[in-house]
Amino acid sequence: MGQPTHRTVAVNGIDLHFAEQGEGEPVVLCHGFPGLWFSWRHQLAALSAAGYRVIAPDMRGYGRTSAPAQVSEYDRPQTVGDLVGLLDVLGIERAVFAGHDFGAHLTWDLPAWAPDRVSALMQLSVPRAPRLPVQPSVGFKYLASKHFAHVHYFQEPGVADRELGDNTRAFLAKIFHALSGANRYLDCWEFPSDGNGYLDVLPEPPALPWSWLDEGEFDYYVTEFEQTGFTGGLNWYRAEDAVWAQNESLHAKPVEVPVTFIAGAKDPVLEMMGSDPFATMGRLVPGLVSTHVIPDAGHFVQMEKPAEVNSAMLEFLGALAT
């Protein structure tokens, strides 16, 4: 079946690294926090074997891609510009985009920001939701007045950067376990914000290997984040006020390209988004053609249940072709 090839190209003022495998219609896979191109390793193999050209970048701030220091470098014109620039460099007019976590936030916006470059979306974990009535940081601060909220903890430059960077292996093990289907991440809310860092509120994980992550795979993440630190990844959260403002006139625009949505049944994002996030998403996404909720999976559904995710993706892609 082969292995992905790796390239780094000059795009939108940064050096952007990506893994690529296969030939055919292009599919671009956009990871979230704390992810890498490697988070899509199972999809690279399966989709390329089925006849697709699969491209998985290290997003801006991650892995072997440049990590600008300024928060303003992670706003929506820049992050959209990375993906459009990548298509341009590769000679691709339109692609199917998949997003997970903040990658889904970005790709939900793509049909409004770059309508001529998106043929369809495969969205993981994060349903499309209505625009917040206040700046995200205001909402984050309110949450932090009630309980520990990582989105608020991430806002102050240097604080989370130091804690996570000084404890890379411990943090990654804790966050991967806590967000998976094997744990209940929202137990973090039992802790107050004051006096706690992220490692203080996350549960102790069991020893590796797990059913979905072995020692070698985990070590790849540790090695990459030990080299880069976490500031680039955290800057995506610090740019959310800017993204919110930049989307003011675009957010209500319906997503009309074909969309499939995939999530783990135990993903805490679904629990945080209210009683029926799918009904809300349906109103905002008239292009939604299918929804897959995968049992016994949490937030990292594409790694926890790759066979089920690959099947859902290939079913959707096959329907597009016909």
Can you walk through the features of this model?
- The chain is α/β, with parallel strands linked by helices.
- 43% of the residues lie in helices and 16% in strands.
- It has helices at 41-49, 76-90, 102-113, 136-146, 150-153, 159-166, 168-179, 198-201, 215-228, 231-238, 240-246, 268-272, 277-284, 301-304, 306-321, and strands spanning 5-11, 14-21, 25-30, 52-57, 95-100, 118-124, 259-264, 288-294.
- An eight-stranded mixed beta sheet has the order 1-2-4-3-5-6-7-8, sandwiched between helices.
- α1 packs across α15 and α7 (168-179) packs across α9 (215-228).
- The longest helix has 16 residues, at 306-321.
- It is globular and about 55 Å long.
- The model has no long low-confidence stretch (mean pLDDT 96).
Mean pLDDT over the full residue set: 96
Helix and strand run = EEEHEHEHEHHHHHHHHEHHEHH
Helical residue percent? 40-55%
The strand line-up of the biggest sheet is 1-2-4-3-5-6-7-8
- Share of β-strand residues: 15-25%
Question: Mind telling me the C-alpha Rg?
Answer: 18 Å
- What is the helix tally? 15
Largest sheet: 8 strands, mixed
Name the shape in a single word: globular
The counted number of beta strands is: 8
Q: N- to C-terminal separation?
A: 25 Å
Low-confidence spans? none
Based on helices, strands and strand pairing, what is the structural class? Answer: alpha/beta
InterPro entries: AB_hydrolase_1, AB_hydrolase_fold, Epox_hydrolase-like
Protein name: Alpha/beta hydrolase
Keywords: Hydrolase
Domain AB hydrolase-1: 26-126
